[in-house]
Backbone:
């Protein structure tokens, strides 16, 4: 049998048996490399190393560490207070606050599950006490946290840029407006649902402009984080990888010196947590990289790319087809695995159809983001379910209208490239 067919069959079979995606990718790749004598001794170790040695990927552990430090310093609490004072009194005020805080926190962490945990710990309990159902509260936070990989800095953009040789800095800037567009549809959805169900606004402290100014001052450390990171990248002061290091230095400075909310013990715990998260990401990256190499050598990537190119020559139809494919894969796979599985196939498609790589990348990552809140393996849903002790399927049902709102935003991004290119010109 053709080795490309075997590669796909082994991977799909292991996935169907419930084997973790990273292990399925690795076993399929190693099995084909060994069976067809593609250079077992040299190829596996060399590709394993080559997949993770890239300089742009060095930004991932630093951005993860910065997000973990700021989470432990409880900066999310301060952001919640600011947004509560601004919009908390409207219908569904706490749900709206949750969406806004998740969007802003995504500009700090770049990770959906991390944002779900940081914002959910603060808000889900408060929403329940205000009369919101626990499943809706969890779904609102989980779906809002999707935007964490669209709003820069984004781990997904770093990996996409590395795979396609596209400027990560430009991708970061390009993701700002589309992220706001998807966030706008999400805000509308939670507001309409809350109004229909009678979820009232939150009770916020009195004090007028003085209290608001004080809350802004207390949250200034969190507010300035994305400004410094993105401003430095946009101004050409540092690269995304260097920006990640700056983010860590800034997070330590703010948490230890300014807020004094992070002890030495907390810093050590942050290092341990960030190391575990980074190891998980890089484990997937390494095995998925080997799978991509094997797919290229066996002709699997060329075959699928040729089929896609033959399906349509309309760039908008192609982008929508890819978006549907990514949404479907998001139901059964994690975002990083999808990228390493699909992006190498799409590179020749982008080149052949002369697609704008920045617009295509933003649309691809936006579709990828939605998959974090779609069952059965939406990582944000599982994180939120753990916070409220509710079954994932119950939260998933509440998430459906919010996912639909995000999909509408995705279609808008796919059909109007100018939204992705607005700040890059």
Residues:
């Amino acid at each position: 049998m053709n080795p490309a067919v075997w590669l796909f069959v082994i991977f799909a079979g292991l996935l169907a048996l419930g084997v973790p995606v990273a292990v399925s990718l690795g076993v399929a790749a190693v099995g084909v490399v060994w069976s067809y004598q593609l250079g077992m001794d040299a190829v596996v170790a060399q590709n394993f190393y080559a997949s993770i040695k890239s300089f742009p990927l060095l930004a991932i552990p630093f951005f993860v560490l910065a997000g973990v430090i700021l989470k432990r310093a409880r900066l999310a609490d301060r952001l919640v207070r600011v947004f509560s004072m601004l919009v908390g009194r409207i219908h569904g005020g706490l749900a709206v606050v949750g969406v806004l805080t998740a969007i802003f926190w995504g500009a700090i962490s770049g990770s959906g599950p991390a944002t779900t945990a940081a914002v959910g710990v603060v808000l889900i309990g408060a929403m329940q006490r205000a009369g919101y159902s626990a499943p809706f509260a969890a779904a609102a936070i989980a779906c809002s946290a999707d935007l964490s990989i669209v709003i820069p800095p984004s781990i997904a953009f770093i990996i996409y840029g590395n795979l396609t040789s596209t400027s990560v800095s430009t991708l970061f800037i390009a993701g700002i407006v589309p992220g706001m567009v998807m966030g706008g549809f999400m805000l509308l959805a939670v507001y309409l649902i809350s109004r229909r169900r009678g979820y009232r606004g939150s009770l916020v402290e009195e004090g007028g402009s003085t209290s608001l100014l004080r809350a802004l001052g207390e949250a200034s450390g969190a507010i300035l984080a994305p400004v410094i990171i993105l401003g430095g990248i946009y101004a050409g002061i540092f690269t995304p990888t260097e920006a990640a290091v700056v983010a860590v230095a800034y997070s330590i400075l703010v948490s230890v010196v300014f807020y004094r909310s992070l002890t030495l013990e907390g810093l050590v715990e942050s290092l341990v947590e960030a190391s575990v998260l980074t190891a998980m990401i890089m484990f997937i990256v390494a095995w998925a990289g080997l799978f991509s190499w094997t797919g290229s050598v066996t002709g699997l990537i060329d075959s699928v790319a040729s089929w896609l190119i033959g399906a349509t020559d309309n760039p908008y139809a192609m982008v929508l087809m890819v978006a549907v494919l990514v949404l479907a894969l998001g139901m059964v796979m994690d975002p990083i695995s999808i990228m390493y599985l699909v992006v190498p196939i799409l590179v020749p498609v982008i080149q052949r159809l002369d697609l704008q790589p920045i617009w295509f990348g933003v649309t691809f990552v936006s579709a990828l983001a939605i998959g974090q809140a779609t069952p059965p393996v939406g990582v944000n849903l599982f994180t939120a379910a753990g916070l409220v002790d509710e079954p994932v399927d119950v939260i998933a049902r509440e998430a459906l209208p919010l996912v639909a709102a995000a999909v509408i935003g995705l279609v808008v991004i796919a059909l109007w490239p100018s939204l992705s290119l607005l700040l890059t010109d």
